[in-house]
Amino acid sequence: MGATQLSTKHLLGIKYITKEDIQLIFETADNFKEVINRPIKKVPSLRDVTIANLFFENSTRTRISFELAEKRLSADVVNFSASSSSVKKGETLLDTVNNILSMKVDMVVMRHPAPGAPSFLAQHIDANIINAGDGTHEHPTQALLDAFSMREQLGDLEGKRIAIFGDILHSRVALSNIFCLKKLGAEVMVCGPPTLIPKHIGELGVEVSYNVKEALKWCDVANVLRIQLERQDIKYIPSIREYTQYFGINKALLDSLNKKIIIMHPGPINRGVELSSDVADSEHSIILQQVENGVAVRMAILFLLADKR
Ligand code: CP
User: Fold this and answer.
1) Residue 62 domain-assigned?
2) Distance CA 281, CA 266 (A)
3) 258 CA from centroid of ligand 1 (Å)
4) 177 CA distance to ligand 1 centroid (A)?
5) Pair 189, 92 in one domain
6) From ligand 1's centre to the CA of 111, what distance in Å?
7) Within-domain flag for 295
8) For ligand 1, what atom is nearest to the CA of residue 57?
9) CA within 13 Å, CB half, 103
10) Residue with CA at minimum distance from ligand 1 atom 1
11) Cα–Cα dist 174/44, whole Å
12) What domain range includes position 96?
């Protein structure tokens, strides 16, 4: 029989959880996916739980997905956005959070531009902390919903080949995906320009390719990442046009391979840069299924962590 409880009180990163934790989250998410497809999508599981969503950095998918997951579980929800808060007047992170917690908050979902900010909080406060993306460090719920979506398509991920394309250097999604997929026994390759691939990434047990066609030939799933246009003031690539020419994935390239590859993207997509619209919107793409699965996976995480209070 598998685990019935998580090994941890917080979800700070995939690095800190076990394969059994991941499998328990998936099995619980299977049940919640059934729930959110019912006419009445709500269950009373977290009726006595108050959750604060603290977003110190922009988000569309993650913020809405967490809020929906919390409401589907009947939790009380408070939303905080740094841009409209007293952080603007110089309040520290710890003071902000302590003030929110004094209002009897049980769980905190936090996105922050500083790597390690959720871990810092976990050392200072009693609530369960969920990392919703911390700088270039980790984005664990994205990796879990990505792997859950791959499992839906391919079954057990043991031995399956997953290639991650794009800006690996700046990507918390890439790092969390690598940790998650390796724990599940998948083979992982990263592919992009040498300047956007960390030098020692091979130490994480991944293959490296600088050739998109070769990587596509190798993989069952292509998880394509956003080129972080906001970080291109330093010249990691000569131009966006050149990136698209050498590393963009389009229909002509996929058609030339004569094989079916599952296309994924965590969003937001730069259409016509890393992915052409005819691929993003094609039958090979499961991008919107990823978003749908995000709610069920986040419900599972909240539900299981609430049990650790
Ligand atoms: N995938 C993801 O984290 O998207 P958002 O930045 O919109 O939350």
Assistant:
1) yes
2) 14
3) 32
4) 14
5) no
6) 10
7) yes
8) 6
9) 13
10) 266
11) 34
12) 14-139+291-306
Whether 103 and 229 map to the same domain: the answer is no
Contacts of 29 by beta carbon, 8 Å cutoff, 6+ apart: 148, 293, 296, 297, 299, 300
Instruction: Select from 168, 192, 140 the least CA-distant residue to 21.
Output: 140
Residue with tokens 């965590």: 266
* CATH number of the CATH domain containing 21: 3.40.50.1370
**CA 158 / ligand 1 centre spacing (Å):** 27
User: pTM (2 decimals)?
Assistant: 0.95
Q: Which of 57, 61, 224, 289 to mutate to test the pocket of ligand 1 (most atoms within 8 A of CB)?
A: 61
Residue 107 DSSP one-character state: E
**Based on the domain organization, do 124 and 36 belong to the same domain?**
yes
Ligand 1, residues at Cβ distance < 6 Å: 59-62, 133, 139, 142, 266-268
What are 79-118's pLDDT values in tens digits?
A: 988 877 677 778 888 888 888 888 899 999 999 999 999 9
Ligand 1 atom with least separation from CA of 111: 8
pLDDT recorded at residue 247: 96
Burial bucket for residue 217 (CB in 10 Å: 0-12, 13-18, 19+): middle
Do 92 and 160 have their domain in common? Answer: no
The Cα–Cα gap between 173 and 51 comes to 24
Same domain (yes/no): 98, 175: no
Mutate which of 53, 54, 57, 60 for ligand 1? The one with the most ligand atoms within 8 Å of its CB, which is: 60
Q: pLDDT digits over 167-201, tens only? A: 999 999 999 999 999 999 999 999 999 999 999 99
User: Ligand 1 centroid vs 58 CA: distance in angstroms?
Assistant: 8
- Joined together, the tokens standing for residue 264 give 């994924």
Task: Dig out the tokens for 105 from the structure.
Answer: 């908050």
For the chain, give percent helix, strand, coil, nearest 5. 45, 15, 40
